TrEMBL record:
Keywords per UniProt: Lyase
GO cellular component terms attached to this protein's record: cytosol
Gene Ontology annotations of biological process type: aspartate metabolic process
UniProt-listed InterPro entries: Aspartate_Ammonia-Lyase, Fumarase/histidase_N, L-Aspartase-like
Claim: Lyase is one of the keywords in the record: yes
Protein name, UniProt field: Aspartate ammonia-lyase
Amino acid sequence: MLPSLRTGCNPGHTCIMPLLHSPAFNSIGQSRTASPLFVAFRHCPCLFETFFIMSSPASSRIEKDLLGVLEVPANAYYGIQTLRAVNNFHLSGVPLSHYPKLVVALAMVKQAAADANHQLGHLNDTKHSAISEAC
Protein backbone atom coordinates (compact mmCIF):
# COMPACT_ATOMS: atom_id res chain seq x y z
CA MET A 1 0.00 0.00 0.00
CA LEU A 2 1.51 3.33 -1.04
CA PRO A 3 1.10 6.33 1.26
CA SER A 4 -0.82 9.43 0.28
CA LEU A 5 1.67 12.00 -0.98
CA ARG A 6 1.73 15.30 -2.79
CA THR A 7 4.13 15.23 -5.67
CA GLY A 8 6.19 18.12 -6.98
CA CYS A 9 7.25 19.81 -3.76
CA ASN A 10 7.65 23.56 -3.75
CA PRO A 11 10.60 25.04 -1.81
CA GLY A 12 8.27 26.70 0.72
CA HIS A 13 6.03 23.67 1.11
CA THR A 14 6.65 20.67 3.33
CA CYS A 15 4.89 17.56 2.09
CA ILE A 16 4.15 15.73 5.29
CA MET A 17 1.10 13.56 4.94
CA PRO A 18 0.08 10.69 7.21
CA LEU A 19 2.06 7.61 6.29
CA LEU A 20 0.16 4.50 7.24
CA HIS A 21 2.20 1.42 6.57
CA SER A 22 3.14 -1.97 7.87
CA PRO A 23 6.66 -2.39 9.24
CA ALA A 24 9.47 -3.10 6.80
CA PHE A 25 10.44 -6.16 8.85
CA ASN A 26 8.34 -8.77 10.52
CA SER A 27 8.70 -9.74 14.18
CA ILE A 28 11.70 -12.01 13.56
CA GLY A 29 13.60 -9.54 11.39
CA GLN A 30 12.84 -10.94 7.95
CA SER A 31 12.62 -8.24 5.29
CA ARG A 32 9.28 -7.53 3.69
CA THR A 33 8.75 -5.31 0.69
CA ALA A 34 10.28 -1.85 0.79
CA SER A 35 8.74 0.28 3.51
CA PRO A 36 6.25 2.83 2.14
CA LEU A 37 8.14 5.47 4.10
CA PHE A 38 11.20 4.93 1.94
CA VAL A 39 9.04 4.71 -1.18
CA ALA A 40 7.69 8.12 -0.15
CA PHE A 41 11.22 9.57 -0.10
CA ARG A 42 11.49 8.99 -3.86
CA HIS A 43 8.32 10.99 -4.47
CA CYS A 44 8.92 13.76 -1.94
CA PRO A 45 12.54 14.82 -1.26
CA CYS A 46 11.50 17.32 1.40
CA LEU A 47 10.00 14.44 3.39
CA PHE A 48 13.43 12.82 3.54
CA GLU A 49 15.00 16.06 4.80
CA THR A 50 12.33 16.42 7.47
CA PHE A 51 12.70 12.78 8.52
CA PHE A 52 16.50 13.11 8.67
CA ILE A 53 16.35 16.26 10.81
CA MET A 54 13.79 14.75 13.17
CA SER A 55 15.72 11.49 13.59
CA SER A 56 19.19 12.97 14.06
CA PRO A 57 20.63 12.69 17.57
CA ALA A 58 20.18 15.76 19.76
CA SER A 59 22.20 16.92 22.74
CA SER A 60 19.03 17.55 24.72
CA ARG A 61 15.36 16.70 24.74
CA ILE A 62 12.44 18.94 25.61
CA GLU A 63 10.26 17.84 28.53
CA LYS A 64 7.15 19.53 29.85
CA ASP A 65 5.41 19.51 33.22
CA LEU A 66 2.89 21.71 35.01
CA LEU A 67 5.56 24.33 35.73
CA GLY A 68 6.69 24.69 32.14
CA VAL A 69 9.24 23.36 29.68
CA LEU A 70 12.91 22.48 30.24
CA GLU A 71 15.72 20.97 28.19
CA VAL A 72 16.97 17.70 29.68
CA PRO A 73 20.27 16.21 28.45
CA ALA A 74 19.47 13.58 25.82
CA ASN A 75 21.59 10.87 27.43
CA ALA A 76 20.15 11.43 30.95
CA TYR A 77 18.06 8.69 32.54
CA TYR A 78 16.24 11.28 34.68
CA GLY A 79 13.42 13.57 33.69
CA ILE A 80 12.20 17.08 34.25
CA GLN A 81 11.23 16.58 37.92
CA THR A 82 14.76 15.49 38.86
CA LEU A 83 16.26 18.36 36.88
CA ARG A 84 14.03 20.83 38.72
CA ALA A 85 15.06 19.34 42.09
CA VAL A 86 18.76 19.59 41.24
CA ASN A 87 18.31 23.21 40.09
CA ASN A 88 16.16 24.30 43.04
CA PHE A 89 17.68 22.37 45.96
CA HIS A 90 21.42 22.69 46.26
CA LEU A 91 21.89 19.33 48.01
CA SER A 92 23.58 17.70 45.04
CA GLY A 93 27.25 16.99 45.60
CA VAL A 94 26.80 16.91 49.39
CA PRO A 95 27.31 13.44 50.87
CA LEU A 96 24.49 11.98 52.94
CA SER A 97 26.93 11.61 55.85
CA HIS A 98 26.62 15.37 56.39
CA TYR A 99 23.08 14.71 57.60
CA PRO A 100 23.46 11.97 60.27
CA LYS A 101 20.05 12.65 61.85
CA LEU A 102 18.41 12.18 58.45
CA VAL A 103 20.19 8.83 58.02
CA VAL A 104 18.99 7.67 61.46
CA ALA A 105 15.43 8.82 60.69
CA LEU A 106 15.41 6.96 57.35
CA ALA A 107 16.67 3.79 59.06
CA MET A 108 13.92 4.08 61.68
CA VAL A 109 11.25 4.39 58.98
CA LYS A 110 12.69 1.37 57.11
CA GLN A 111 12.73 -0.66 60.34
CA ALA A 112 9.13 0.28 61.19
CA ALA A 113 7.98 -0.60 57.66
CA ALA A 114 9.78 -3.95 57.83
CA ASP A 115 8.19 -4.74 61.21
CA ALA A 116 4.70 -3.83 60.01
CA ASN A 117 5.03 -5.83 56.78
CA HIS A 118 6.45 -8.81 58.68
CA GLN A 119 3.51 -8.77 61.13
CA LEU A 120 1.07 -8.63 58.21
CA GLY A 121 2.78 -11.58 56.52
CA HIS A 122 4.04 -9.58 53.53
CA LEU A 123 7.73 -9.96 54.47
CA ASN A 124 9.35 -13.30 55.23
CA ASP A 125 11.61 -13.95 58.25
CA THR A 126 14.86 -13.91 56.26
CA LYS A 127 14.24 -10.52 54.68
CA HIS A 128 12.91 -9.08 57.95
CA SER A 129 16.01 -10.13 59.86
CA ALA A 130 18.30 -8.77 57.12
CA ILE A 131 16.55 -5.39 57.19
CA SER A 132 16.60 -5.35 60.99
CA GLU A 133 20.35 -6.01 61.06
CA ALA A 134 20.99 -3.27 58.50
CA CYS A 135 18.93 -0.74 60.44
